[in-house]
Amino acid sequence: MLPIAGRFVFILIFFWLWQPVGLAQSAAIQVLPIESPCMEGGESNLFVDDLGTVWLSWVEFVNDSVDALRVARLEGDTWTNSREIARGDNWFVNWADFPSLAVFSGTNGQVLAAHWLQKSAAGTFDYDIRMRLSQDGGATWDPPFTLNQDGIAAEHGFVSLAPTSDGQLRAVWLDGRHTKMDEEDADHAGHHGGAMTLRSALITPSGVLKEDIEIDSRVCDCCQTDLAYTSDGPIVVYRNRSEEEIRDIYVARQENGKWSEPFVLHPDKWLIAGCPVNGPAISTIGNNAAVGWFTGAGGKNKVQVSFSKNGGASFGKARRIDSGNPLGRVDIDWLSDQRAVVTWLEKTAEGARIQLRTIHRNGRKGAAHLLMETSAERASGFPIIARDSNGLLLSVTEVGAMKKTRVCTYRIILPLERN
Description:
Blueprint: H1 4-17, E1 30-34, E2 41-48, E3 54-61, E4 67-75, E5 78-79, E6 83-88, E7 100-106, E8 109-119, E9 127-134, E10 145-146, E11 156-163, E12 169-175, H2 183-189, E13 197-203, E14 209-216, E15 226-230, E16 233-239, E17 249-255, E18 258-259, E19 263-264, E20 281-285, E21 288-295, E22 302-308, E23 319-320, E24 326-334, E25 339-347, E26 352-360, E27 369-374, E28 384-388, E29 391-399, E30 405-413
Antiparallel strand pairs: 1-30, 2-3, 3-4, 4-5, 4-6, 7-8, 8-9, 9-10, 11-12, 12-13, 13-14, 15-16, 16-17, 17-18, 17-19, 20-21, 21-22, 22-23, 24-25, 25-26, 26-27, 28-29, 29-30
């Protein structure tokens, strides 16, 4: 038996000699695989709770008609045995509108909350946001309930969840209740339906819904939302939709218990008739916020980052961080109170690659690192990053033979950079 130090050196040498297919590594960065609990599936998500524990959720493809939402917890660099949250044969499973799991503090300890999308009628985009809570770390789950309370067979999704400081859970989502109008309303409005909206609600540890309110009455139909808390309160970022079809990133924040009037984060002025399915990402630390997003304004694809130091009340200069031909699918997280890390997809002749770059709040950018080759197809989904006490984690969907997909996870070891 090798001593511990010897075994560590052997593992590093083994990894250097053997690289999984499709994985590329910069000389200045390490991408270390963590064995995934997923057999066949996708739509993964990561969440770090207040104790620093990382949770992985994903959709497992049980068979041709049944899907299951599962969760596992990271211990060291090993995922625990996964637990099933829910399963069904009437789910809406979509590459861009994926489930999530969040952990918040209830009166008797941590409460797990998970959401998925479930068909509500025969229409292709008629589905509700279903949720379950667990009071015992995922061993058992309370009966499911519906987050959107309108009772209308319409599109509801693109959910973001974040715990509050008073033991509740904040949810924001895209709500299509106004897109389904009766004949009288449609004739009066002069069109066949209203706009997609952005809503918010609070969820108690017992599953009671409170403060269900509309934040924005007209938003892009199928771009991801993102939600985080600063010292001042909740802030949500999303893609808006003007009457002229300008679809830029907007910000709304809660001030003194009321949601502010939404405002544009940066005037890209992206004129596009259809939804680009490419939402923003936000990360906060204290009263600092960092937002990353994709735009195709003026026919030029860009991934940009902007910082706020006043709880999202205003944002600084938009700084481009891509390598020249991005596809978007952006995620962002803080590495310290001075520096953030961004991931995105960059288009290549063969498909795409996942890239990473750090950026200081003063605008100084680190080198662009290649994490791995991937597919540009929708099946490859959205890479997700999260930071724990040991560094950075990455969750991706890898597309294999016969287009079968599997969730894979990695530990990212970044090169040292000055703050």
